[in-house]
């Protein structure tokens, strides 16, 4: 089984208009997956992109539910609205996948996981495992979450994948982003690292600018999670905007960054 994270930077322009969706890109990615299905089982997790991130930021969901009624009420409404934005993104994914003949089935993240400070502490994977056995492609997404420490929080698709990798031991996890892989510095300035040993990730993180670009911590969060995922699975970072890169990572001969456990 392979887990594919379809990053928000791939399916949308994160600095563009709210809820912009690159339908042609998602369609092409679905076509690539269709050439491997049903021989390979997939779980797809998509990020927030231009759907979840603007809402989560506007309503400051990551600050949780405070005592003060008015602020808490504003955040409760924001919690619902952020989830609705993610459901709209998810519906567009399912539509594109089904159009390419893939039985993608939406699994609503916030109904399946509970977090503590944004990390999954409880996840009910029963339905996901059954869906896989029945040859569906479960599609999860970064979402809001009920949080044991803060009342509410945001659960990143990257954290979901760490939990799935720990519980399901996939053969591979592939992160699709809008750049060619993990760079030694800013994309375009440094060079792409082709093989990254997990024990070099901490040193790399110290060199990178980790001032968060979005509510879930951007590339630095992804790298921290990748280190944990690498305890269970091979991890790839490839450019989802370039046709064929996803297929290359699935086959194992693609261009990008590979983290080998
Ligand atoms: P989302 O969280 O919405 O799903 P995503 O999964 O596509 O989005 P981001 O969190 O936006 O991913 O992180 C990917 C971005 O990180 C890329 O757009 C890239 O420009 C940026 N980035 C910054 N530094 C690096 C680096 N050293 N290597 C790779 N990408 C980097
Ligand atoms: O883009 C964030 O998930 P991510 C989800 O995978 C929301 O980090 C709602 C912002």
Short description:
With 261 residues, the chain is α/β, with parallel strands linked by helices. It has helices at 8-11, 23-34, 49-58, 69-99, 126-133, 157-168, 201-207, 218-229, 245-251; strands at residues 2-6, 42-46, 104-106, 113-116, 119-123, 137-141, 143-147, 151-155, 172-177, 234-239, 257-259. The longest helix has 31 residues, at 69-99.
Give an overview of the whole structure.
It is a single chain. This protein is α/β, with parallel strands linked by helices and 261 residues long. The protein has one domain (2-259): Carbamate kinase. The protein is built from nine helices and eleven strands. The strands form two sheets. Strands 3-6-2-1-9-10-11 form a seven-stranded mixed sheet, sandwiched between helices. Strands 5-4-7-8 form a four-stranded mixed sheet. The chain is globular. The relative contact order is 0.16.
